[in-house]
Structure formats: C-alpha cells, structure tokens
Amino acid sequence: MDSASDIPGSPVAWNGVFLTVPKDWTPATIEPRYISFTRNATATLECKWSPETGTISLPRKRKALERQMKRAEGFTFAPQAIPPHWLRALERLSADFEILPFAHALGTGALCLHRPTNTSLLLNCYIRPDEPQHDLHAVLASLGVSAPGTPVPFAIQDMQFTVPAGYVLQKAEFNPGNTCLRFARERCTLTVQRLTPANVVLQGRPFRAWIQETQDVPLSHIRKDKTTLPQGAHKRYLWRTTPRPSLLQRLTSFRNGLKSARAMQGTAWVADEENKLLLVTHESATTSHCDEQAFRTLWQSVRVF
User: Fold this and answer.
1) Inter-residue contact 236 to 270 (CB < 8 Å)
2) CA gap 103, 98 in Å, rounded
3) Please, which residues bridge with residue 269 across strands?
4) What region does 257 belong to: left with phi over 0, alpha with psi -120 to 50, or beta?
5) Is 139 helix (H, G, I), strand (E, B) or coil?
6) What is the DSSP letter of 34?
7) Which residues fall within 8 angstroms of residue 59, CB to CB, at 6 or more apart?
8) Percentage helix, strand, coil, to 5, in the chain?
9) Predicted local confidence at residue 8, as pLDDT
10) Confidence (pLDDT) at 259
C-alpha cells in the first residue's frame, strides 16, 4: 500500500486492490472482487477487478464490455463524449495502467489493464462535473494492485492486517458486531474475526472460559502469553490442539472419504480502548503441524481502530 501512504484519508485494501479514500467515503458493497463507495448515502465510485490468465487484449476487452453494456443508456467509448474532468482524473492513475475511458448516462468509467499483475479493472464514477474533483484525483492516484506471490494487505471497515502469500480469500462475512474473513491455501485455513463490543460478547465470563466454549478447546490448552502483545492489548491468550485419532478412526475416515481431525492453533485478545475482541485461528487438515509462520504473520499484523 506504499502508493497510498502519503495521501490523507482512510486506507482500503481488499483482495488484491488497494487505495485511499476520503474519511467520509464509506464502503457500501463488498464482494470478493468488487467494492463500491458512497458519500452521504450517494454513490461515488465502484471498482471491479479480475486477475487474468494469458495475455490481455485491450480491444477484446473493449468489445466484451460493449456487448455487456449495450443496453446501458448513453454508454459510449467515443472520445468526444468523455467529460474533460474525468480525463484529468484518470491522468492521476499509475503509469502501470492502460486506460480506456467511457461515459454513460449515470456518470463515467474506465476499463483499466494493470500490466505488471495482468489484472483487469473496471471503474465507474458517479461524481458530477460540478462537484469538487480533488478527492477523486487523490483516490485514483492511490489505486494499486498487489503483486502475485506476495503478502496481500487488507484494510476494510475497522480492521487492517496482512495475509501471507498463497492464501486466497475463501469467505467474508460482515454482520453487525461480527466481521469474519477466512483464507485458504491447500489444506490450511486462516481465519480473522472481530467481535464487538467485547464486554457484551464476553458477558462477564472469564476470557479463557469464553475461548473454551466457543472454540471447543480444553481449558488446559489455553495459556496466557505476554511475550508479544498486539496493538492495544494488555493480555493475549494462545492455544494449540493436535488431535490424534485412533487407528479405527483413521481407517474409517480413509474408507469413507471423511475428513480427518484437524490441527488448530489460535490466539485471542481484546483491544481495550476500542472494546473489540480479536480472534485469529489457523487450521490444518494435516494433524502433524500447523503453519506457524503464516499464523504468526497474520495475527501480529492485525490492527483495529
């Protein structure tokens, strides 16, 4: 997220794309490879992206988009129809993008190809020409794409963290008081969960008892660890389980194609000033060990605000 670091605003990083938006821009719709923003309940910008396999052809992408948008009122790639304010805004995009602007009845847009990562992006902007454009210029200047095979930053709602390379977003849930994101690589799963308000979640129960109940972990496996504390935490709990199924269970699982018991490690803490409970777990279908480095990289990067 280096390109966004010097721009005032709120960082947003979501599944490979990162940018910085004004503090009054709110993520409205969040899907695996789509995000839209509103300001005062009015649409401002939306972005849809897709990693491509093989060589991207801009003319082919243009024809496909024309077929897709043929019923959209006023849709056109005609240069004379593109508003000057939109062309000036697009000039702020990184030189890594190849850009094909368009217009439609509701606003403007651009088909963008990010050559270094072989990613196609579709931008739609709903900011009117008579509105101030400096925010939009700053947002487009901050837009970037994470390189394949590198750790992927996530900054969404009130959380920031970095997912180790190779882990792919599998599931995302945004519910009131509960955000849960799950990532997978081969037979391993990493999960980040934020629960709030923490005091309501715990309901006066000891933290270890809550972990025991919700994670189905024996109390004897849960220990306090103060060697490394996340930001805003005064204590952190850590646990690890390595199930050892009996020979009969292993034979039955093999014969029936059932999943074997999973090894799990987890950690949980409360960001006291924010009154938010954070939970990070790593599960592996291989009962011998978990990916300790990936687990540590993830939980140590978590920040809430």
Assistant:
1) no
2) 17
3) 236, 278
4) left
5) helix
6) E
7) none
8) 25, 40, 35
9) 63
10) 47
Distance in angstroms (rounded) separating the CA atoms of residues 124 and 127: 10
pLDDT for 5 equals 41
Q: Tokens for 15? A: 């599944």
Nearest CA among 38, 286, 42, 79 for reference residue 185:
286
Distance CA 271, CA 278 (A): 7
Do residues 38 and 44 lie in contact, with contact meaning Cβ atoms separated by under 8 Å? yes
Q: Are 107 and 126 in contact (CB under 8 A)?
A: yes
| Residue 144: Cβ-neighbour burial (10 angstroms; 0-12, 13-18, 19+) | buried
The helix/strand/coil state of 264 is strand
Q: What angle do CA 164, 232, 297 make, to 5 degrees?
A: 15
Q: What domains can you pick out in the chain, each with its CATH number?
A: 2-145 (3.40.1000.10), 165-304 (3.40.1000)
Ranges of the chain whose pLDDT falls below 70: 1-8, 243-262, 286-290
pLDDT value for 116: 94
State the Cα–Cα distance between residues 87 and 186, nearest whole angstrom: 43
37 vs 252: CA distance, rounded Å = 51
For residue 246, give the nearest of 236, 254, 238 by alpha carbon.
Answer: 254
**Dist CA 40 CA 43 (whole Å):** 8
**Residue indicated by tokens 């390379």:** 165
Q: What are the CA-CA distances from residue 4 to residues 8, 11, 133, 301 (Å)?
A: 8, 7, 18, 18
Question: Residue 91, Cβ neighbours under 10 Å: how many?
Answer: 11
Question: Is residue 35 within 8 Å of 19, Cβ to Cβ?
Answer: no
Matching residue, tokens 């920040």: 303
> Structure tokens of 284?
């592996």
Task: Tell me the residue type at 177.
Answer: G
Q: Which two tokens stand for residue 83?
A: 């508003």
